[in-house]
Amino acid sequence: MEDLKKAIRDIPDFPKKGIVFKDITTLLRDPASFQRTVDLLGHRYVGKKIDVVVGIEARGFIVGAALAYKLGAGVILVRKPGKLPYKTHKATYELEYGTDTLEIHQDAIEPGQKVLIADDVLATGGTVSAVIGLIEKMKGEIVECAFLAELEFLKGREKLKPYPVFSLLQF
Ligand code: AMP
């Protein structure tokens, strides 16, 4: 796992001063690291009968789509406002400064479908907790929230309770 951690690049002071950005593009561009990441994450959910994987714009699409392919599941896109063409449910959530909104198609998830939420990095958990709200509204059954990496010191998983959280790499 240490080699996968090393494949993620730290960018200090991005997007603003004081934030150390975990740049996963260096992991994604390395064939062996990308394949191992998807295999390790996907292995956890084989046999769990996941119907759909929800990927969060934009890096969550990469992790989510790869996982869904491995699991034989569908992919659902959660996007920034104004990008999805059909009727949507919206969730607005707090950021450090101001708010942000995410959207999902109203017919994306059927009640009772088993849902895996996927994103690249779990930081404060604000984004994923908004996504959880959308899925609850649609009565999807959230099996777990899966992340490539988790910034443990931000305690994001506390915000996602009672849903289980799994991260492949911890920082
Ligand atoms: P949060 O809502 O705080 O959990 O952060 C949500 C989104 O912001 C995730 O989708 C991450 O991709 C991104 N993000 C937040 N902090 C970082 C960081 N330090 N490095 C890389 N991505 C981050």
How is this fold's topology laid out?
Elements: H1 2-6, E1 9-12, E2 20-23, H2 25-28, H3 31-43, E3 52-56, H4 59-71, E4 74-78, E5 88-94, E6 99-105, E7 114-122, H5 126-137, E8 141-150, H6 156-159, E9 165-170
Parallel strand pairs: 3-4, 3-7, 7-8, 8-9
Antiparallel strand pairs: 1-2, 5-6
Helix pairs in contact: 3-4
Bound molecules: adenosine monophosphate (AMP).
Adenosine monophosphate binds next to strand 2, strand 7 and helix 5.
Mind explaining what this structure looks like?
With 171 residues, the chain is of the alpha/beta class. It has a single domain, classed as Rossmann fold. The protein is built from 6 helices and 9 strands; from the N terminus they run H-E-E-H-H-E-H-E-E-E-E-H-E-H-E. Strands 4-3-7-8-9 form a 5-stranded parallel beta sheet. A two-stranded antiparallel ribbon has the order 1-2. Strands 5-6 form a two-stranded antiparallel sheet. Helix 4 (59-71) links the parallel strand 3 and strand 4. Helix 3 crosses helix 4 (59-71). The chain is globular and about 40 Å long. The chain binds adenosine monophosphate.
What is the domain tally?
1
Average residue-wise pLDDT: 97
Q: What ligand species are in this complex?
A: adenosine monophosphate
Q: Largest sheet, described in full? A: 5 strands, parallel
The CATH architecture assignment turns out to be 3-Layer(aba) Sandwich
Task: Outline the low-pLDDT stretches.
Answer: none
Run of helices and strands: HEEHHEHEEEEHEHE
Largest beta sheet: what is the strand line-up? 4-3-7-8-9
How much strand content do the residues show? 25-35%
CATH secondary-structure class:
Alpha Beta
Number of helices: 6
CATH topology call: Rossmann fold
| End-to-end C-alpha gap | 12 Å
Principal-axis shape equals globular
C-alpha Rg, in Å? 15 Å
Approximate helicity band: 25-40%
